[in-house]
C-alpha cells in the first residue's frame, strides 16, 4: 500500500526497541489501507524465530469488527454474497476477547488484537476495552483502526500511541485506479481523484459504485442552487431507492469533497456557509454508521446543504 513507509518505520523501530507500547491507534481517512497495515503489522509482532507461522488466519491475532446484522446476513456471508453489518462492535465481543486474553498465546509469547474500526465501539464496549488498556495482559498488544479519532474516548486515546496515515498523492491514486479499475477512463479517474481527498479507497468506491452521476449533480447544485428541487429529485434518483450503508457513507464523503473543493475558490463572505455545510456533513458522516437513515431524507438533506452554497441569483429588472 502506498503512503505507509513512515508508519512501517515507526512500527519496526518500536518492535526493535526495549519496550513495545501495548496500545496503538492506527488513524487516518477511510480507504488509506489502515486495516491492511494493522494486519501485516500484527503478523510481524506475533512472529518469532523458529516458530512456523500459518499463512492464513493466525491463532494469536484476534480481529474484532461489526458482525452480520442477522442470521440471514450470516448465511449470505457464508455464501459469499453481499450482506449487511450490525451498526456497532458490541460489549459482548469485547468481553469474549477478554476471556481469550486469560489464556496464553497459542504459538509464541505475543498476541495482537485488532479492532476495526474502533470508531464503531458501543459505549459499553469502549468502557470494557479501557479496562484492558489500563491493565494489559502480558504479551497482548492492541491496534485500534480508526477513521475518526475524535470518536474514541479521551481515556482510550491517552493510553495509546497514535500512528497517523496521511493523504495519498493524486498521481499515486491514479496509478492504483489504472491497476485496479482498468475500465475507468481518464475523465472518470480525474473525477474520482478530485472527490477522494487523498483516499485510494474512496477513489475506488467512486468508480466501483458509479458515483460519477452523483458527483455531477452535487457540483451542479452547489454552483447553481436548486430553487425548484428538481436537481435534488435527480440526486435522489441517482442515489437509488434503497442504498446500503456503504453507498450512503460514500455519498456523504462525496458531498464533503465537493464542499472542501470550493474552499479555495470562493469569496470570504461565502466561507461561513461552506463551514456550516461541512460541519453538518461531518455530523452526518459520524451518525451514518449507527443511524438508520431514511434514504430519501438523507439525500434531500445533502442536497439542501449543497444548494445553500450557490451564489444568490440577481433579481431581474423590468
Automatic annotation (TrEMBL):
One of its GO terms (biological process) is DNA-templated DNA replication. Signal peptide: none annotated. This is DNA polymerase III subunit delta. It comes from the Bacteria. Transmembrane segments: none annotated. InterPro entries: DNA_Rep/Repair_Clamp_Loader, P-loop_NTPase. Pfam families: DNA_pol3_delta2. It comes from Croceibacterium xixiisoli. GO terms for cellular component: DNA polymerase III complex.
Amino acid at each position: 500500500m502506498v503512503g505507509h513507509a513512515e508508519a512501517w518505520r515507526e512500527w519496526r523501530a518500536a518492535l526493535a526497541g526495549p519496550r513495545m507500547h501495548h496500545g496503538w491507534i492506527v488513524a487516518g481517512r477511510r480507504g488509506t489501507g489502515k486495516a491492511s497495515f494493522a494486519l501485516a503489522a500484527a503478523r510481524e509482532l506475533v512472529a518469532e524465530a523458529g516458530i512456523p507461522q500459518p499463512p492464513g488466519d493466525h491463532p494469536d491475532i484476534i480481529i474484532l469488527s461489526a458482525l452480520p446484522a442477522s442470521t440471514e446476513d450470516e448465511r449470505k456471508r457464508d455464501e459469499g454474497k453481499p450482506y449487511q453489518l450490525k451498526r456497532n462492535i458490541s460489549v459482548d465481543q469485547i468481553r469474549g476477547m477478554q476471556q481469550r486474553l486469560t489464556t496464553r498465546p497459542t504459538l509464541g509469547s505475543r498476541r495482537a488484537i485488532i479492532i476495526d474500526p474502533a470508531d464503531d465501539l458501543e459505549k459499553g464496549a469502549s468502557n470494557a476495552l479501557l479496562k484492558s488498556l489500563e491493565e494489559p495482559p502480558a504479551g497482548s498488544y492492541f491496534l485500534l483502526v480508526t477513521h475518526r479519532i475524535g470518536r474514541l474516548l479521551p481515556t482510550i486515546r491517552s493510553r495509546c500511541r497514535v500512528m497517523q496515515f496521511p493523504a495519498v498523492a493524486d498521481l499515486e491514486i491514479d496509478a492504483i485506479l489504472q491497476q485496479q479499475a482498468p475500465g475507468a477512463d481518464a475523465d472518470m479517474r480525474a473525477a474520482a481523484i478530485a472527490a477522494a481527498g487523498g483516499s485510494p479507497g474512496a477513489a475506488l468506491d467512486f468508480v466501483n459504485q458509479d458515483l460519477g452521476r452523483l458527483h455531477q449533480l452535487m457540483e451542479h447544485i452547489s454552483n447553481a442552487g436548486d430553487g425548484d428541487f428538481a436537481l435534488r429529485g435527480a440526486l435522489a434518483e441517482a442515489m437509488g431507492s434503497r442504498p446500503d450503508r456503504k453507498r450512503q457513507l460514500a455519498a456523504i464523503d462525496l458531498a464533503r469533497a465537493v464542499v472542501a473543493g470550493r474552499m479555495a475558490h470562493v469569496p470570504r463572505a461565502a466561507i461561513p456557509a461552506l463551514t456550516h455545510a461541512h460541519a453538518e456533513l461531518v455530523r452526518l458522516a459520524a451518525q451514518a454508521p449507527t443511524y438508520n437513515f431514511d434514504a430519501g431524507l438523507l439525500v434531500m438533506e445533502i442536497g439542501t446543504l449543497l444548494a445553500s452554497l450557490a451564489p444568490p441569483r440577481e433579481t431581474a429588472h423590468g
